[in-house]
Structure formats: structure tokens, C-alpha cells
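Let's sit down with a protein and look at its sequence and fold side by side. We need material for that, and I hope you will provide a protein of your own picking. Once you have written the record down, we can walk along the chain together.

***
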Amino acid sequence: MDPRSEVVIRQQDYLNGHVLLINAPNDQLAKNLPDQVQASVWTWNYADHQGFQNSGIHSHFSVEFPQASFDQVVIFVPKSKELLNYILHVVVSHLKLGQNVFLVGEKKGGVERAAKQLQPYGKTLKLDSARHCQFWQMKIEKTEQLKPLEHWLKSYTVQIDQDQLKVCALPGVFSQDHLDVGTAVLVPYLSQVKSGKIADFGCGAGIISAYLAKLNQNQQIFALDVDAFALRSTELTFQKNNLDLNQLTLQPVTGFRDAPKDLDAIVSNPPFHQGIHTNYDASEELCQLASVHLKNSGELWIVANRFLNYPPLIEQSFGQCMVKADQQGFKVLYACAK
């Protein structure tokens, strides 16, 4: 069991009634709480959501608070400070004065900083420090009126050749307030990508998906991501650029194996973080499985840190891998399915 969950179990006597576990790890915490607790989960991680559902745990996959009433919430600290601000606002907009909000997180994950973000809403108390984690309590003394999701958007403009693309990103989404270097290195090559049915794996704020749609109105774009905030951001980026939403299919995935088949192209700046931890499983799976999801002569285009050893994985699957660019610490890799 995750050490954060173990700390919650150590302090389970504080919990009772309908308890919402927010951003909880995919483990059996909800099933190991005492009888006086009816636990549900709110997650924006689709892989975790599938895991909870498969275990018979009630899970809500969304960027928005579940439509239900709760006695208490336990927030597992997310990596992003802005995302925690959004979650806290939503929580105190749905709960009442005097209700308890608990916060749990790893010390190296910034739990002490996160606990300070509770202070505008009530007095905080550290209840436990164990397993390199901390567990905090805050009794709500100030509620808020719920603000629309758009209030939390960050927007910026990307210049691509003669084109401008407006990017919309919600809290916690990769590259929320600027174009990341990897995508900037890849973007000039998007005009070379084979047209048709294209998957953008790890779509993030939708920069790649939106630009591919802008280049060709006949493209059929599948935006794939594990994160509900990324999928919604991609949709908002399409809307902001007046792109046809009929071109776009938003698809939550647990990994690349959930991607559609018979694709003309796969384009990706693949993810390699899971919360605060580095995890290359998703991008390695992409390299190994991409050819199975492509039509004959379908293309794989990915950008990755120069130090990541993806070419051998791609060569095992495709028989070849071409380096199209090597600049600013990133490589653009290309392969064609036989």
C-alpha cells in the first residue's frame, strides 16, 4: 500500500461518514477504512480510475467535483501548486462551515508547502508525520462561491511559421504557461506528418492536436491522455482557435495499448512523469506497440530527450528509426510501418 494511504489508516479514527478521497493512489485504502466510513474517490487519472472500478471502489473521473454530498474529504497532494489551489477552491465551494478537510502527502512532494495553502480557509493542525509523509487537518471557517472552470485557465500564443496558435491549459497540465522545448523542436515537422487518422499520445494542452487540425481540415485527430485536465484543455484549445470539434476525438487512456488501430500517423511528445515520480513505461510502450496501431506505411513521429534510448526500441518494432532533428537537447524520431 502507498505510504500516504498507510498514514491515513493510522489516523482513521478522524474519519467518518461519506468521505471523498481526492487524487488518491490506486490501492486498497478505500476498502481498508473502518465501517463508519463510506469512501469514494475523485481522480483525474484514467489508469487509477480503471483500477478503482475494477476493485469495486466507487470512482469519479473528471475535472469537476462529484455531484454528491460528502461529510469529509482527504486530499492527496498533487504535484502542481496551481492544481491544489483549484481543488481547495472546489472543495470549500461544495462543503459547509465546520466540515473537515484532511491533507496527506510526501515530504519530498511538498506537503508542508501544500499545508500552507489550506490556511486561507481555516486553522490547520498537523496530526501525523510518518512514512516520510504528513497528515494535516483543516476545519472549514470560510467557504467560497464556485468559480467556472475557465477562471483557472492559462492562455498563451505560439507562433508557428506564419500561423498563430492560442493554447489553453488548466492547472496541472504539462507546459501550462509556455511552449515546452521538446514540442517547440517537433512543431516545424508537423506539416510533414502523413494526413488522415492521427493519434496524439499524451496530448497535454492540445498544441500538437490543434496544429495538425489547423494544417488540414480533413484530419481526424484522436487526442489521447491519462489526465482529464489535459483532455479538457485540448478541447478548450480547439475552441479557442475556432477549430472544428468534429475533427477531434478525446480519448482517456491507461496507456498506449488503448489507442485506436489503423492509424495513418502517431505523433507524440511522450509523457515520462507519474505524479512527482519519473516513469518511462508509457513512452517505452508507445515505441514498442506503435507499429501494431498503424496502417501499412503509417508513420511514427516522436520527440524525446536526447539521453533517452528510444531508437533501439523503435528499431525492434519498425526495423528502422530516423533522427529528423537533434537540437536543444531533444531528438525528433521518425519511423514508417511496413
Observations:
- The chain has two domains: 3-140, 153-337.
- The chain is about 25% helix and 30% strand.
